[in-house]
Amino acid sequence: MHLQQVARLTTFVVALGLALPASAQQFTAPRPSPNAKLQQTVGITDLSVTYSRPGVKGRAIWGALVPWDKPWRTGANEATQFMCSDDITVEGQKLAAGTYSLVTIPSAESWTVAFSSQKEMWGAFDYESRNDALRVTVKPAAAEHVERMQFTFEDPAADAVTLNLRWEKLSVPVKIGVDTNGKTLVSARAAITAAKPDDWRTPYRAATWANDAGIAPEDAAQWARSAAKVKENFQTAGLLARLAAKSGDNKNAVTLMKKSIAYGKADTTVTKEQIETNEKALAEWTAKK
């Protein structure tokens, strides 16, 4: 065959390959240990765990398939990934915002849980402890049988949650804490600084949140006054009334709440239930005179 014929044939074969649909060129088999992603928001902080879920399949797991006292990928396939959008605490110790490989070292009495900066690992074969951002020790507990390994976020609160690993007849809880109030306070201050002069809602919402959370009372009072200065209405007068009552100024609380109720009755966007809530508070304060 002449060289020109060979070249034409090669070009034809390459072109034929390029013309094939992608589905004819690629094949993806299902993984025996399927991928999973778990997400949870605590306060304003996002947490997630991305992992693969191996099954027991009648095998001995602890001290066998998963050896004692050796680094484990905490799942199957790639090492499990843990992400936190803000700084958090894990078992009371600080962990900076970021994405980490979650590597564990199981033993019969306790587990080491390591958050490693080695993000791209297949298994834990290349794991090196010097790359750990944090290590904590937790206690495993006996639990009901779980066939396919799973992570869960349990007992979520405004500033805490427990990340629980369950597989076979074992549960491994890891306590996570978040400074929700501190982070929200920083966010509130920034939002108020950036608010437009005619914006009463931003300082009102920030003051309401701070008052409900029971933090930064001076900030809450200042923001509430700022909101009312821009626009005195059912919401702002009612908030000032509650702040006055909280500080022990019952006389001013009564005066302000009467204003709030009057504004509410003249405002079609205010519901009957909202007005009744303020009337109930007014009745309680009036009875204290």
Overview of the molecule:
The structure is a single chain. The chain is an alpha+beta fold. It folds into 2 domains: 35-177, no CATH class; 180-287, Alpha Horseshoe (Serine Threonine Protein Phosphatase 5, Tetratricopeptide repeat). The protein contains 8 helices and 10 strands. The chain has helices at 3-19, 22-25, 180-194, 201-213, 217-230, 234-246, 250-265, 272-287, and strands at 35-42, 45-52, 81-84, 88-90, 93-95, 98-106, 111-116, 132-138, 141-154, 160-177. Strands 1-2-3-6-7-8 form a 6-stranded antiparallel beta sheet, with no helix packed on it. It has a 4-stranded antiparallel beta sheet with strand order 5-4-10-9, with no helix packed on it. Strand 4 (88-90) and strand 5 (93-95) form a beta hairpin. Helix 3 (180-194) runs antiparallel to helix 4 and helix 7 (250-265) packs antiparallel against helix 8. The protein is elongated, with a radius of gyration of 30 Å. The termini are far apart. The model is unreliable at 1-20 (pLDDT under 50).
Specify the biggest β-sheet.
6 strands, antiparallel
What's the order of the H and E elements?
A: HHEEEEEEEEEEHHHHHH
* Uncertain residue ranges: 1-20
Tell me the domain tally.
Answer: 2
* CA-atom Rg in angstroms: 30 Å
Overall body shape: elongated
Quote the distance from N terminus to C terminus: 111 Å
The number of distinct helices, counting runs of at least 4 residues, comes to 8
Helix content: 25-40%
Overall mean pLDDT score? Answer: 90
Q: What structural class do helix, strand and pairing data support? A: alpha+beta
Number of strands: 10
For the biggest β-sheet, the strand order reads 1-2-3-6-7-8
**Percent of sequence in beta strands:** 25-35%
